[in-house]
Amino acid sequence: MEMVVVAPPAPGRLEDLRRRFFATPLQAVLSLACLTIMVFLAWKLLNWAVFSAVFTTSGGPEACQAAAGACWSVIAARWRIIFFGLYPYEEQWRSALACVVVVVMTVLSCIPVFWTGRRIALVWGAGTALFYVLMKGGVLGLAHVGEEAWGGLALTLFIFVTTCLVGFPLAICLALLRRSELPWISRTTGLIIDGVRSLPLISILFTFAVVLPFALPQWLQGDKLYRVILGSALFFSAYQAEIVRGGMQGVPTGQEEAAMALGMRYWQRIGRILLPQAMRNALPATINQFVISFKETSLVIIVGFFEILASGNAAYGTGEWRFAYVEVYAFIAFIYFVFVFSLSRYGAFLERRMSISER
After folding, report:
1. Which range of residues forms the domain containing residue 79?
2. Burial level of 191, CB count in 10 A (0-12/13-18/19+)?
3. What pTM value is reported for the model?
4. Residue 58, exposed/middle/buried by CB under 10 A (0-12, 13-18, 19+)?
5. How many separate domains does the chain show?
6. For the chain, which has fewer Cβ within 10 Å, the N-terminal or C-terminal residue?
7. C-alpha angle with apex 308: 303 to 313, nearest 5 degrees?
8. What is the pLDDT of residues 267-277, one digit of tens each?
9. Domain harbouring 102, CATH code
């Protein structure tokens, strides 16, 4: 007679919580103590940020100083400086529209129908060109606004987008050069990549912004903004090149050998066989690199650019709002959180869609 073994029922949620946090008396005491501290801190934060906060500008800074909570009135009074920086007041609609263009471009890039090299290049190229025309002006009846007047969120997004737009193709080229069969090419490329990766980004930005003009003729110097973007793109490409190369190493060598046996040319093997699978393997690390690059845009404040962090400093650093710096930084942190969290959640969605995490 065959014996049937019945598996024990899966523990319920309450039983699982009891086993994980209240298995022993000491563990129960520690869990309750941690829970009490978390509830206390959450209540204090909620009371400061919402219940006791001041949201309107009717009472002015005096009403904020008299209140026990946060002073969100500084955001209501100085939001234009935070978002637009030094951009001319009457032209700030162009800066706002340029930010919308970047968001739309990013959303289109996340739609699978645009996941081809030609379409994604068209979306990013057209979006960046439209962003530049809106910000710079000088055509289509738009007043000219020089790069020295750009600032706020628009400048942060511009640096991030152009860094990725220039750095990503450069990263693919560096990855391909490093796996070249010619030793002098692969070793030279590896030396360049490792040399850039060994330097902090701030030193590269300082070099491109301040030192490089002394080594270049006047006609080759260009604007400081574009030199900083080039340095940021070089730093991005060095790290992304290693990510792409790691993805290539995850592709079985037999596939490329089979493509060679079928008579496919080099660029056909790279574009149709190797790179699609390599980018699929490298997707989690690539999303992480995009997140890091977006956060690193705040470093350009060191070389004199009025990005969103510098705009926040100006929002509370002048006039009667000097006491409200915590609220300004909290608001800027929330803006960074929205963009970074959206990128990370989209990366998690792509991992589930492509089943990368199961490999």
Report:
1. 73-354
2. exposed
3. 0.83
4. exposed
5. 1
6. N
7. 80
8. 888 888 888 88
9. 1.10.3720.10
